[in-house]
Design a protein that fits this description.
Blueprint lengths: L4 H14 L4 H15 L6 H12 L5 H15 L4 H6 L10 H14 L3 H14 L7 H22 L4
Helix pairs in contact: 1-2, 1-3, 2-3, 3-4, 4-6, 6-7, 6-8, 7-8
């Protein structure tokens, strides 16, 4: 199995953001990689992973939503063979719960609770593709959190 150099660089950006708190530096790196891969016309795996990571470093929820939508669209173009070739342990189906979780959270932040619930349902429907490792537990915890936030929003909505 060969290490995919572009995915490794994207991971460097993720580490800048999550481990070192350097959100702006991560966004700058992601922007350079985005240009190098040809933007949305790039390899769908690179587009999906990069857009998913880029969404996390946005300051504006509308931009976050746009990047998450790009990631989901790219995932729809992926095959398990391409993902495996890049050394990704998950099948394509394993990408969807996180993608839908993020989209659901964006829609919740924007006040579109119906769309948030729709993405939550999609994420929950695909959760079994993840198994039971640390990543799966992280996504399940995110789904539980979103479920609670949406329930609370419904209880507090004007009648």
């Amino acid at each position: 199995m060969t290490v995919d150099a572009t995915l490794a660089r994207i991971n460097d950006g993720v580490q800048l953001h999550h481990q070192r708190g350097q959100r702006d530096a991560a966004r700058d790196l992601f922007t350079r990689i985005w240009d190098e891969i040809g933007g949305q016309d790039g390899d769908p795996l690179h587009v999906c992973v990069l857009a998913h990571a880029m969404a996390d470093v946005q300051d504006d929820v509308h931009q976050e939503l746009l990047w998450d939508q790009r990631a989901l669209a790219a995932a729809d173009l992926l095959t398990d063979a391409r993902v495996a070739q890049a050394g990704v342990a998950l099948p394509v189906a394993g990408l969807y719960p996180s993608l839908h979780l993020n989209l659901g959270e964006c829609h919740r932040k924007l006040g579109d609770l119906d769309r948030a619930r729709e993405h939550l349902r999609h994420a929950q429907a695909g959760i079994d593709a993840l198994g039971d490792d640390e990543y799966a537990r992280l996504i399940r915890a995110g789904l539980d959190r979103l479920t609670q936030l949406l329930a609370s929003a419904s209880e507090n909505a004007p009648q």
